[in-house]
């Protein structure tokens, strides 16, 4: 099974997984592979490595999509029948745009954007980046300018956090503490009790900022918009479960990553979320070698001298052990995903930081099983 078959006819493809496994690389490669097959594709990357960003033409922070020049593909000998657009998520900017769209008037908009509580909230609340990534995809999805949107996901410690993001935002808006602030007339030092008033007073002396008036202003103006934002969060959450959304799990073959991938798969099953396949990236492969380290040591010794030969043989033995561990972990994951597709991409000698590197990854993602083997 190739990625092209896996996501055929889908409008959105979400690449989720644990930190550092290759989500950004995989999303960019999937977007490129689908674009080269003739689709108009946009990939939303999150914190791409600098070199990858610049090869995607994203040297400055761009919350807008940019098209990758067709000449660039030509120069690298990569066939490109469609269009590849890329963008980087700027979570703060996306929040600001959401407020700009939702605010009933200029004064409200400016009051919120300039408010210190808002500025903290829009960057610091856990799950904000996750939510904003989905929010951005939802918006592009509504605009229907692309055949396919590929979403990279933020480096959460735990891949499961991503699934909860819209729900968490809704819960925050529904939470008792926020409701208390939002209820008109209730807000004030008296309603919060003397103790709170003292703390606010102390904070004001220490930080020099009037936290209390910031809070009262923020919750005052934000209150009316909260309902609208909450409704939107629900729709954003629904997009994740939409039949036109493909959900791919990216993982590395390391033991901890595979443990997490298995937990993730179960969690999706429990919440009846769609799952379309797993991609195991950076697999240590041993192709065309059927010798053990002991077998090769004498030859290496003759070639490199005893000491260096021994070191290289030991190194080779370590590599074989890691490759064996990877094979075992991939088997474990395969049992968990049962009949669902699982695609392996080997560990390359170099980082994947340019279009050529992405094309190499595509070679594995888009190969038929027989060819890959
Ligand atoms: N198959 C591969 N072979 C060699 N290097 C790879 C491969 N896939 C990815 N890399 C490299 O591994 C590093 C991590 O990849 P990437 O940034 O895609 O991971 P990520 O899951 O997005 O990480 P984060 O969770 O931090 O966002 C990058 O330097 C990338 O170039
Ligand atoms: Mg990443």
Mean pLDDT: 84
Count of structural domains: 1
Biggest β-sheet: strands ordered side by side in the sheet: 3-4-2-5-1-6-7-8
Bound molecules: adenosine-5'-triphosphate, magnesium ion
Strand content: 5-15%
Oligomerization state: single chain
The rounded Rg comes to: 25 Å
Sum up the overall morphology in one term: elongated
Can you identify the CATH superfamily? P-loop containing nucleotide triphosphate hydrolases
Helix content: 55-70%
Tally of helical runs: 18
Instruction: State the end-to-end distance.
Output: 12 Å
Query: What's the CATH topology name?
Result: Rossmann fold
Descriptive account of the structure:
- This protein has helices spanning 3-6, 23-36, 50-55, 70-75, 91-102, 106-113, 116-124, 128-143, 160-174, 176-182, 189-192, 194-207, 211-241, 255-270, 293-304, 306-337, 355-365, 369-372; strands spanning 12-17, 40-45, 66-67, 83-88, 148-152, 245-251, 277-283, 342-346.
- By secondary structure, the protein is α/β, with parallel strands linked by helices.
- It has one domain: Rossmann fold (3-Layer(aba) Sandwich).
- The chain has an eight-stranded mixed sheet with strand order 3-4-2-5-1-6-7-8, sandwiched between helices.
- The chain starts with a helix and ends with a helix.
- Magnesium ion is lined by residues 23-24, 46-47, 152, 155.
- Residues 23-24, 46-47, 152, 155 line the site of magnesium ion.
